[in-house]
């Protein structure tokens, strides 16, 4: 099989990884609430997914060279299907069994996501170094498409028999595995120059840590929304269909902006784009709550917050300066003296996905606990100020502020000479 079929196979794997991620957000929180499960415990259930992915990413980044990328990708599909089978009876079991099945399902789903994302990232960077930006655009488009389809699939499943439909969906994933295996074909041999890789040393490099912190921030945003947005919108008077469309609006706007971010903001320095993205996410949380000091509690304000949040996420995450493991972290690693080979790519892929997982863990746990104590409005407002604060950290930590001052000093003498 050729390069196109291999790429298509990886995109299908990503699709089946991201559809369940947003799919369960349209029905699980309400079912859990109806069984008397509190917000904070719902948050823990959703955090089990990225927690499992975090540990799996660490393991995979170290041993992918021995296991093989193809086996890892196919294992991700199998685990995704298995997680659907385990989750299927949650409507018909009691509270305690539902919690047990939920945690087990989310742990397996996290392992699945780690397999697909770590191996997929590594293949894109190592096998297609000249087409990284093109691959990234497609990667984000497929991810966004999966997150758009997820809520729509979820609401359809919820209207029918959830038990049967989840089993059928898991079965569909299993049926694709032989075809995906054929499409992936054979992978090239590994190139190894970094025979000894100290992950902690690589992680502690200041510029690498700043990049990873941005990844954490983006996924913490999703981690906040996935377990909490459904109940918030239903409490605001939205129907299940309207609520699902709101999820789709957020992910659709993210997908569209992720494709066109480089074109829309090509004249802006990448660090400036990321800084503005943080401010937009802060604004969107103030509107989503909404923070009544500034915004009235109106439907159009809440709806407008979702595409603004999608734009902010795309500006942070998809600007070529900071796509996970791609040009910037690799270039930074080379500046620190590392050689560019498959070991470095696998290591950065693992670290990047671990940072994303950490954001998914932090988001549900902290937001669930704070909402239980202070309510959605106050928690959303606090989250908004937190994102604005990290934006300021990035402003100074990335050297962007120093660059602005330097440019200003350069412009002033020119004006004086004129």
Automatic annotation (TrEMBL):
It is a multi-pass membrane protein. Signal peptide: none annotated. Its main location: membrane. GO terms for molecular function: transmembrane transporter activity. Keywords: Membrane, Transmembrane, Transmembrane helix, Transport. InterPro entries: MFS, MFS_trans_sf, MFS_Vesicular_Transporter. The chain crosses the membrane at residues 9-31, 37-60, 72-90, 96-120, 141-160, 166-187, 208-229, 241-261, 273-295, 382-401. The keyword Nuclease does not apply. It is found in: Membrane. Pfam families: MFS_1. GO terms for cellular component: membrane. This is Major facilitator superfamily (MFS) profile domain-containing protein. It comes from Stentor coeruleus.
